[in-house]
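Repro case for the chain-ordering regression, as requested:
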Amino acid sequence: MRAIIFSWEYPPRVVGQLSGYVSALSTQLASNKVDVNVVTYDDSATGQTKEPSGVKTFRVANPVRTHIGVLTWVLTLNQEIERAAANIYYESNKQVDLIDVHDWHFIPAAVTLKNGLGIPFVYSVESLEDHRSPNAYAPYNMAIKSIEWMGFFEAKRISAKSEWMKDEIQRIYKVPKEKITVISTDPSVWIKEILKLYHSMEETEE
Amino acid sequence: MKDKLSVMMLSWEYPPRVIGGISPHIYFLSKHLAKQDVKVYVVTCDFPGAPAHEVIDGVEVYRIDSYKNPSPDFATWVYLMNMNMQRETAALTRKIADKIDVFHAHDWLVANAGIGLKHVFRKPLLVTMHSTELGRRDGLHTTTEKMIHETEAWLTYEAWKVICCSDYMISHVKYAFGLPSDKLVMVPNGVNTHSYDVDCDLKDFRGKFALPEEKIVLFVGRLVYEKGMHVLINAVPKILSKVDAKFIIVGSGYMKEQLLNIVRSMGLEHKVLFEGFMDEPTLLKLQRCADVSVVPSLFEPFGIVALEAMAARCPVVASDTGGLSEIIEHDVTGVKVYPNNPDSLAWGITKVLLDGNYAKFVRDNAYKRVQEKYDWEKIAQQTKGIYEGVLGEYSKSFWAK
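-- result from build under test --
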């Protein structure tokens, strides 16, 4: 099985909890015979990179350096994420089973890759804009919410880290609950549940 | 084995959505490419009342959801719209049986979509740069302007070839983004001469604007500084001392009030008419009955208005600057005058108005030149040639294997 993981933070770049989580996830997957390709942001400020064994990492820089906000920064960076993923796809004889997207940042790239190349994606939810910025309805927040919405709509599966988050995704975005899998935090079953989720991605939809 | 070349054209405007010059450009280019046996798909922003898919003159037109949530600002909207454009165009490209050979993007407004689709489908990307942020703003003063400029640079970097509409724009784009010369191709903008084939009697129509003894001097353009309308106003008394004329100003802009005040203070209100925006059929007729068309611009990337006048068989007096310098051949297809010089402008206009034989000579030459060089059919042929050249190079690249 070949998986591509999208995350805007990955060691040595640590913004929040996601970085450590994606790092543990990718090494665990690699030791379970998954061909893991992490596509992430090349943060020059974080210094020397030491790549973990078994995990292929692709770090891309933003093609546009001057920005007026997070949205324009994210949306141009998405193009390089998309390009890196397309390269992995073509260089592996078009054998990519899934993309696992962590949070909203690289949803646009995953959506284009799904529609253009037929690669399904899992939307792994760490947090939602509604919780990060409660009662914020400025165009900026609404744009992020619209990207989250598109992610839930286009994803084949959604993974949440708690029952509470599953309920929140359902409540806020009206996502059918069959689409959402809660991944246990118990270290003995955690990776098995993720592998099970990944394998369910291979089932053909109708 | 498929034999028909197919192109996916990306543009933020296509009729009935008309914001600037790109919309008619895409319309005519696509239509004439289709006549040259090229399969053309146009992907553009939606417009109230226009269908999501239709076939116009053999061109497949798709209108995408242009992102209608509130956006923080125009530039952010452009990137969000590109997200939607990519999503829908990717699905469309995957669906259509005959695969797309090239993607052709127009201006930075579709940069992200063009670049993304290039890499997802591994097909060559062509870009037409109609304008640049550097030229529009005369420098890069704000963060937004710098961001747009960098996006343009990125787009031209990703493109296989960059098409510009004049030699002036070629050198400007080369300088702005540091591109190698062999990446740039000049294909002029076109004008549709048939639009002006109105055979009805224009005498009554002319009477609405001028007295029979008055010559008509026509200015068409936005009333902004770089269009040089103020130069024309300063030339008016000099012209009127030699020949009786009416000056008709079509267009609007931030300088309108200021220009109106100058005209009033000069006591020329009865000679200079500000018509504001004008619908296309009326403008076409007016261009047909004008005795001279004036383009006094200080800065002009191409100068389509000069071509339109030439197609309408109206003699042109234009400043020797930018794209206009290339369109007009002095004393052959029109009159070139010094930019920002009312005396020179008055001299050129007076010459055309007083010498009927000379006016006829440049007018006829200009019409012939437009048919030879700025004809959409020829432009589409040239564009098809560029596609074929790029595909020839592409076929030898590892992407084609």
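Ordering looks correct now. DSSP finds 15 helices and 14 strands in chain B.
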